[in-house]
Amino acid sequence: MTDGFHLVVDALKLNGIETIYGVAGIPITDLARLAQAEGIRYIGFRHEQNAGNAAAIAGYLTQKPGVCLTVSGPGFLNGLVALANATTNCFPMILISGSSDRAIIDLQQGDYEELDQLSAAKPFAKAAFRINRPQDIGIGLARAIHAAVSGRPGGVYLDITAETLGTVLDIETAKKSLVIPVDPAPRQIPAPESIQRAVALLEHAERPLIILGKGAAYARADHEIQDFVERTGIPFLPMSMAKGLLPDGHEQSAAAARSYVLGNADVVVLLGARLNWLLSHGKGPLWSETTQYIQIDIDPTEIDSNRPIAAPVVGDIKSSITALVDALKPGQVHPSEAWIHAISVRKQKNVARMAERLRANPDPMNFSSALGAVREVLAKRPDVYVVNEGANALDFTRNIVDMSLPRKRLDSGTWGIMGIGMGYAIAAAVETGMPVVAIEGDSAFGFSGMEIETICRYHLPVTILILNNGGIYRGDPEDSDPSPTGFVRNARYDKLIEAFGGVGYHVTNTESLSNAVQAGLDSGRPTLINCVIDPTAGTESGHIQSLNPKSALQQ
Ligand code: ADP
Ligand code: TZD
Ligand code: MG
């Protein structure tokens, strides 16, 4: 005989799930123990949201669903923000939660950690299923995997009742019930006429632009995309997590002339990027009203979401870009020389302006001077994963720290969410074995800060750099009561990690900052650098101040 506990572990192993991120408790403690005993790596967290964020980014990095395991009720709800964030960002993950007695839940008789979890999860997940008997575990996990990785990836909720885990069934029936999904993320070949429409538009484009999104990074079509960009000579602009898909130093990168290219392109190719708030919805002063779009996306319902799309190409990026390159005759696409020249002039001007800011050496440090130092260290370590969240801490890092390899930059993404930092850092280290530098606002860090214990417990090569300006956006003036955005002044975050055996640094100038980042990377030990930033340095909401609602009274 076997039981639900064993079958869940067998099903996960059969499907190549090597790691589970979770928080233990009733009714899943024995499930976690058994998984570990059977050779699955179990990473135990301090809060389910961080375990969920770890699973989500593991999915992004591996194209396999990352798995998060939680207890019922509140533990499940803690994980739900991460599931929603995964869905919003198109990351494949599966949140597996144990659940209490259905009969008691449905009559609301007050069970331990009682919650109708399936109903709660549905609005926030790409799909949600419940398994009510052990013989359905195999097929239930197969459905969850298909849902997570097919088409536009997303977060899937899988509810497993405590009763299912404990129910026994005979080995033969159990074996037969397991399923390996065949081709769960099938290629989606674009319609030939959609490729012809795109070619027709590109052929006459004088000022074309390619926008690379994290969908393009996820798709792992790195060579095909490079080939398309370099053959056509079209300038490209990476969205933040697509930085490094082509190196930031590539001569066709138009990142340093962003507003110029967005405002002046006649044809824009959206490659795995949505026209959402991060691109001002394709509207307003940033954009030209006459811009025409080619959008390559796996999800047909993304087309025409914000602006009419003249040439939609619905398909997976690898197949679509391959078809597009095959359809283009040599020299058929030719950005005008005036366009390339105008971009290059603006780039040079902006790069020179930034170099000046990076060179300045104010005391205390500001975001530019501190990140100028970090930029130099990281330029020599393209293999390092960079996790990044905050407001000013996010905006300045995105602009200053160059990436030169794909999928190395992991950040707040589509939701602008705080709290992904330690979860993403842990999963990047666990999944890849590579060093991670998490560049964090002091507020952003606080949302997942307790996971430094997890980082120390598993001896992960994670260096946390806190750009500490004493608050959300900036610090409070001396001798004032706490404002809604201010924190304790002169806080020493470096001392926190020492409590768990990690290495703390307190740095007040660029030289000691460079040395500390270098030492963290060289040692491979859990390291936390408290980097003192001028509390007046930040601006409200960083680069997105305009999104704050304004009362008519203030105008
Ligand atoms: P960014 O924030 O970098 O602009 P988004 O998350 O807004 O990127 O957009 C990613 C897009 O990529 C989504 O619309 C998603 O449907 C699409 N996508 C994800 N994976 C693939 C794939 N393999 N092929 C094509 N499109 C994809
Ligand atoms: N809560 C969540 C989950 N996500 C959010 N984005 C916010 C709150 C609001 N918020 C931002 O948009 S940025 C930010 C918060 C709280 C923190 C900014 O402070 P920081 O960065 O210290 O992290 P800077 O460098 O001081 O700007
Ligand atoms: Mg701050």
Automatic annotation (TrEMBL):
<keyword id="KW-0456">Lyase</keyword>
<dbReference type="InterPro" id="IPR017660">
    <property type="entry name" value="Oxalyl-CoA_decarboxylase"/>
</dbReference>
<dbReference type="GO" id="GO:0030976">
    <property type="term" value="F:thiamine pyrophosphate binding"/>
</dbReference>
<dbReference type="GO" id="GO:0000287">
    <property type="term" value="F:magnesium ion binding"/>
</dbReference>
<dbReference type="InterPro" id="IPR011766">
    <property type="entry name" value="TPP_enzyme_TPP-bd"/>
</dbReference>
<keyword id="KW-0479">Metal-binding</keyword>
<dbReference type="InterPro" id="IPR029061">
    <property type="entry name" value="THDP-binding"/>
</dbReference>
<dbReference type="InterPro" id="IPR029035">
    <property type="entry name" value="DHS-like_NAD/FAD-binding_dom"/>
</dbReference>
<dbReference type="GO" id="GO:0001561">
    <property type="term" value="P:fatty acid alpha-oxidation"/>
</dbReference>
<keyword id="KW-0460">Magnesium</keyword>
<comment type="similarity">
    <text>Belongs to the TPP enzyme family.</text>
</comment>
<dbReference type="Pfam" id="PF00205">
    <property type="entry name" value="TPP_enzyme_M"/>
</dbReference>
<dbReference type="Pfam" id="PF02776">
    <property type="entry name" value="TPP_enzyme_N"/>
</dbReference>
<dbReference type="GO" id="GO:0008949">
    <property type="term" value="F:oxalyl-CoA decarboxylase activity"/>
</dbReference>
<dbReference type="InterPro" id="IPR045025">
    <property type="entry name" value="HACL1-like"/>
</dbReference>
<dbReference type="InterPro" id="IPR012000">
    <property type="entry name" value="Thiamin_PyroP_enz_cen_dom"/>
</dbReference>
<feature type="domain" description="Thiamine pyrophosphate enzyme N-terminal TPP-binding">
    <location>
        <begin position="4"/>
        <end position="119"/>
    </location>
</feature>
<dbReference type="InterPro" id="IPR012001">
    <property type="entry name" value="Thiamin_PyroP_enz_TPP-bd_dom"/>
</dbReference>
<dbReference type="Pfam" id="PF02775">
    <property type="entry name" value="TPP_enzyme_C"/>
</dbReference>
<feature type="domain" description="Thiamine pyrophosphate enzyme central">
    <location>
        <begin position="195"/>
        <end position="324"/>
    </location>
</feature>
<keyword id="KW-0786">Thiamine pyrophosphate</keyword>
<dbReference type="GO" id="GO:0033611">
    <property type="term" value="P:oxalate catabolic process"/>
</dbReference>
<protein>
    <submittedName>
        <fullName>Oxalyl-CoA decarboxylase</fullName>
    </submittedName>
</protein>
<feature type="domain" description="Thiamine pyrophosphate enzyme TPP-binding">
    <location>
        <begin position="400"/>
        <end position="531"/>
    </location>
</feature>
